[in-house]
């Protein structure tokens, strides 16, 4: 069976992106580095039953911080209680969380001071999921607790770049969700999307792959670049 050819949002052949260079990589966490989907679905399934929400309403907010999704779904007087409840459910369920194929290898390719995790999860939840997956976290981890505006706003990635001391235009964002790709683009970053939780058609990235094993990072005279295949 022939493997699908990596493409960008316009359908161009993926390897053309190799002539672009970057100095740092900003990784999303859930769906990009770790597979937390079963735990996430269990937690939100319980929450949705308790608050009378449909699955489609939850899916529309994929990639956004939980608090933003909750605020969009419940009445104002329920927000605080509803956010506490989903936080409680997610922190209690970190079972079945694993590192996604190629994620650890890609993460370890970059020097420690040139890589960050930028997640919509809270600090407590990010710490719990990273530990549950057995992933070694970089020194810079930007969580929802660090920002005023979550994805698709560019603020999370702008903070990640700033903490690494790198121009956002010289950063590669690795994401699985449309909201994350939109945030990366708005921050001026180069974008790589992986189809772990979204379709190719939903991911308006510079390059779209099915697995991170399809790409590697190589160092050159002008910085780092992606090698496809």
Automatic annotation (TrEMBL):
Source species, domain of life: Bacteria
UniProt cross-references to SUPFAM superfamilies, sorted A to Z: HAD-like
Name this protein carries in UniProt: Sugar-phosphatase
Molecular function as annotated in GO: sugar-phosphatase activity
One Pfam family this sequence matches: Hydrolase
InterPro entries according to UniProt: HAD-like_sf (IPR036412), HAD-like_SPP (IPR051806), HAD-SF_hydro_IA (IPR006439), HAD_sf (IPR023214), PGP-like_dom2 (IPR023198)
């Amino acid at each position: 069976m022939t493997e699908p050819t990596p493409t960008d949002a316009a359908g161009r052949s993926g390897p053309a992106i190799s002539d672009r260079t970057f100095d740092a990589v900003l990784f999303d966490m859930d769906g990009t580095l770790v597979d937390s989907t079963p735990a996430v679905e269990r937690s939100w399934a319980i929450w949705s039953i308790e608050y009378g929400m449909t699955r489609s309403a939850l899916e529309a907010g994929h990639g956004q911080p939980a608090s933003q999704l909750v605020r969009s779904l419940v009445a104002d007087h329920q927000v605080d209680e509803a956010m506490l409840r989903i936080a409680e459910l997610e922190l209690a369920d970190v079972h079945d969380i694993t590192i996604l194929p190629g994620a650890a290898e890609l993460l370890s390719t970059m020097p420690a001071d040139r890589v960050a995790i930028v997640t919509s999860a809270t600090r407590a939840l990010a710490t719990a999921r990273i530990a549950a997956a057995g992933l070694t976290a970089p020194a810079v981890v930007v969580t929802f607790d660090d920002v005023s505006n979550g994805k698709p706003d560019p603020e999370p990635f702008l903070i990640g770049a700033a903490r690494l001391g790198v121009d956002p235009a010289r950063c590669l964002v690795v994401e699985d969700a449309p909201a994350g790709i939109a945030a990366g683009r708005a921050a001026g970053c180069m974008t790589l999307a992986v189809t772990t939780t979204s379709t190719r058609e939903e991911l308006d990235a510079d390059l779209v792959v099915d697995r991170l094993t399809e790409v590697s990072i190589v160092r050159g005279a002008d910085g780092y670049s992606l090698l496809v295949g």
